[in-house]
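This part of the workshop introduces the protein records we will be handling. A record pairs a protein's sequence with a compact description of its fold. Comparing a sequence with its tokens is the quickest way to learn the format. The record below serves as our worked example for the rest of this section:
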Amino acid sequence: MNGTAERPDDSMTDDNEPSPAETGAEAASGNPDPAAALAAAEEKARENWDRYLRAAAETENVRKRAARDVENARRYALENFGRDLLAVKDSLEMGLQAAENADVAALLEGKAATLKLLATTLERFGIEEVDPAGAPFDPQFHEAMTMQPSADAEPGTVLTVIQKGYLLNGRLLRPAMVVVASELPEA
């Protein structure tokens, strides 16, 4: 021999075969190089981080867009209603201008046409009239201003409508102000 002692373990291992410590996770992953495995994991982490940032940015954009849409809907919700009311205003202004040279019958006709235009506009936007004359009193839709004894109407029915009420898409906008029939006092 040449003077160097050989260790029994060194003679048994080959430089191309993995040691028992290396046969664990690296052998299972099929990636024998730890530096390559780390680089691949870092690249995957960068990709995931990029996806997360894009998803967070998209979520924020959606939130901002929704907030802007809600604000615009609130701000411009009455746009169509206002546009239709302008026709009523124009009709009233023309009626005032025509009043200087018109007779009473023409003025009444113009006023009736303007009222009809307004009623049509209100209906188009879901505002309906509550005119409860002769109907039973309903505190959900009527506001009793006073009670009046009546021989002609049953107690609890609406005798007179002082001011009509209105519903907006089935929801009370303004109650009808009414006079309600009561029993006749006993003599």
Summary: Strands lie at 127-130, 142-149, 158-163, 165-168, 171-174, 176-182. The chain has a mean pLDDT of 84.
